[in-house]
Amino acid sequence: MLIRLRLCDIIEKAERRFMDLKTILFVCVENSFRSQIAEAYFNKYAPKGWVAISAGIKPADKVHPNAVQLMLEEGIDITHKKPQIITKELQERADIAVIVCSGALCPIVYTRYVEEWNIPDPANMPLDEARKIRDTIKDKVLDLIKRLSEIKD
User: For residue 147, which of 3, 5, 86, 116 sits 20 to 30 Å off, Cα-Cα?
Assistant: First the structure.
């Protein structure tokens, strides 16, 4: 009983700490490549008090294998990630949404602040071209983090 109460206390404290974080929501169509990469970079370099999540309007069955390989090259393992659908709850939780895709299929997102990056879909590109897209996403994420770090509460 005592162990169970302590575990419940630990879970409750962790949930409160997580809810206190400001959230970036990275969005694309399938949540299998661009948004997964952006989320991974953001969470690796996130300023204190921030966390990233990602979602899509038509989630793929799995993260694209090239995205996994390209992030492993960067020392970031996203093999455990699973594409998820964007929900009203995710949008309500987000302080900022970043639409990483380009084209007519890109979702409309309802958050207080939305940024559009218009990044081409690397899913069918050769790995060398997809690597350039990965690097562009990294640059944009690092710029976003810099801008967030300059904001005073």
Answer: 86
* Strand, helix or coil for residue 91: helix
Of the residues 28, 68, 133, 137, only one is catalytic, namely 28
Q: What residue spans define the domains of the chain? A: 21-150
- The angle formed by the CA atoms of residues 84, 51 and 14, to the nearest 5 degrees, is 95
How much is the pTM?
A: 0.85
Active site residue 101: yes
- The catalytically annotated residue of 51, 106, 114, 148 is 106
pLDDT digit string (tens) for 39-49? 999 999 999 99
- The position carrying tokens 């299929």 is 105
CATH pick for 21-150 out of 1.10.1060.10, 3.40.50.2300, 3.40.50.300, 3.40.50.2000: 3.40.50.2300
Which of 52, 63, 68, 101 is an active site residue? 101
Q: State pLDDT tens for residues 1-25.
A: 445 445 555 544 444 444 579 999 9
Average pLDDT, the chain: 88
What tokens does 69 get?
A: 């390989």
